[in-house]
Every structure is written in C-alpha cells, then in structure tokens.
Amino acid sequence: MTPNPTRRREASRRAVLTAAFDLVQEVGYAKLTIEGIAARAGVGKQTIYRWWPSKGVVLFDAFLMLSESGDGGPVVLPDTGDLRADLILVLRATVEELNDPRYDQPMRALATEITHDAELAAAYREHLDEPMREAKRERLRSAQRAGQLAPGLDLDIAVDLIWGPVLNRWLQRTGPLTADYAERVVTAALDGLRPRS
Amino acid sequence: MTPNPTRRREASRRAVLTAAFDLVQEVGYAKLTIEGIAARAGVGKQTIYRWWPSKGVVLFDAFLMLSESGDGGPVVLPDTGDLRADLILVLRATVEELNDPRYDQPMRALATEITHDAELAAAYREHLDEPMREAKRERLRSAQRAGQLAPGLDLDIAVDLIWGPVLNRWLQRTGPLTADYAERVVTAALDGLRPRS
C-alpha cells in the first residue's frame, strides 16, 4: 500500500515542529538554525524552507501544535463560583508553566520574536492569545453575571490587570515569580489599591 | 597641553554609547554589530571589546547614560495630592515614550536581551529599574500616608499592577497602546475589579 501523501506531509510537519521545540530547549533560540531542526527531524532543509519563512515561524507553529494537542474543544477556565480561588488556581498554574525549564527557553524565544516582529505578533494574537483571552473573559463574564465584578468593567483591562504583572515579571525578571506572588496579584486586582471601607 | 586621558576615555565611551543607540534605531538589534558601532563612533573595534563583552551590554550602558543625563538627582514622580491624576499623567508619558519611534527599537532590543540574559537582567534591575521603582513606591507611600491607599498594601505589587499591563501590552503587542488605555488601567488598579458599594 502506498502511504497517503497528506499523512506523510503531516508526519513531516509534526517531526519538524517537535524537533524545533526540543532543540530550542537544548541550544537556546540564538543558536537554533533551520539546518539543526532539519537534521533533528530527519527531513531536508528545503522541506522546512518550503513551508516556513523563518525559525521564528517554525517555533510559533510548534506552540500552535501544542495548544491544539488537547481534545480540540475550546479552553475553559475553572468556575466553582469562587472567583478569587479560581483565578489563583489558574494564575499559579501559569507561574508553574513559566518556571518549567522545559518551556522556559521556547517561550522566551517566542516572546522575543513577537516583541520584534509585528506580523508574527498578529498571528500569535489571533491563534494563541485570543482563544486563551476569550476563556479568561468568559470566566470573568460569569463572575460579572453573579455580581462579583463591577458591572461596567472592561473585561480586557481586567484580563491585563490579572495576567499582565505575572507575564511582565517573567519576561523582565524584575523579581521572583512564585505562587505567593500570583495570589497577591489576584487579591490586589480584585480589591484594588484604594482602601475599601 | 596634553589632553587628560580620563577625559579622552570618557569621550570615547560616550561616542560608543551614542553610536550604539543611534545605530540600533536605524538597523534594528539583529543587524547591530560591534563593527558597525565602532565605525559610527570613530573608534577601533578593540576599544569596544576592551570595555564591553557584548552588544547587549553596550546598549544597556547607553540606556544607563541616558538615564543619568538629567541633573543627577533621584527621579521624583509628580505629587499634586491627586493620586489618580498623577498616575495617569506618568503612565501616559510612559505610553508616549514607548510609542516614540526613536526609542522603540532600542527599548525592544534591551527588553529582549533582558528576557534571555539573567546577568544583564540583574544589572538592569539594580541600575535602571530599581531607581525608577523606588520613585514609584515613594509616590504611592505618600498616597498611603494620606489614606488614599489600603494601609497594608504591598507597594511592589501595586507598582506591578499599574505598570505591568502597559509594559506587557507594548512587548507582546496584544492591543493598541494608547493614552486611553493608560487611564483605564490606572482606574481599574485603584478601584479594583470587584464592585464598590
């Protein structure tokens, strides 16, 4: 039986993306090359260049593949009715992922590619950030319906207020990124900096 | 009269730093080279290598020189007694600076070097971030004394909540960075996401 060419292409694509993800952990983004990825994936350099314009885009697609490797349904955040507890749970998981040595190099590489490449940033926003952001907004909408959030609140500002400090501390290394920090950020964002009487 | 060697060294140092800052705006960080900086500054390549281990550190020192070019006194944030108005003023100025094409490339370059280089990040934190952060904390301390902020508030969390979203939106390009956005972030951080009765 001749192997299905679509399947063969898909297998090569996955081999390239897995190789890129593994390799960037080992050598760092600066030393990641298309040649290195091709050797690791067991494909020709030209196969990669045919599908991807740059190593940044290969890495981006590797993240996309990882994000799609679940059951394919949309991401949903926990909703126990206790907004503070749910947000702390999620933000602590984010902190753990950002501190995980397996993800550290690839995620920093993707973040810096986005910083310098507006086109890749737009693709990132559409395919990776926006589905996650919608899940975050949806959890906040549910809290808003339950009267736990200010009625006129801009949910995008709310998402930025909760997740922005953690991402920024991670990227700019301005302090230790701990579970305790995640919890304090959630509390401060929900309560606000002004005193509550 | 023989020129003072200390002065001559200082003039070369400034020429190198100015050249690095100008050049990164023109060619971007990826194409910035020690050779290019040397040519622009009119010094030998070896002069640069004698003082700086990498182009990232040259650029960092260029920012340090800029931050020291005022009157030498510590940075102080405006304090009119109206915390919200003062924070909006400062955060809008930050947004303008981040949107300024003269600073865009150099600042993105510095930010991504910090993302990948823990040692440079530590130097950045000590010499550039911490003096600014202390000025921010000092403004918040004054508000706390006036009863405008929760008494037990962790001021570093407060700084991260106000400035983190803006820096993150800029670096990750997750949306337009406008004066209006700055204002909404300040309001949300001060009031909190939970309703105030």
From TrEMBL, chains A, B:
Keywords annotated in UniProt: DNA-binding, Transcription, Transcription regulation
Signal peptide boundaries: none
Gene3D superfamilies tied to this protein: Homeodomain-like, Tetracycline Repressor, domain 2
Domain HTH tetR-type: 10-70
DNA-binding region coordinates: 33-52
Identification of the protein by name: TetR family transcriptional regulator
PROSITE patterns: HTH_TETR_2
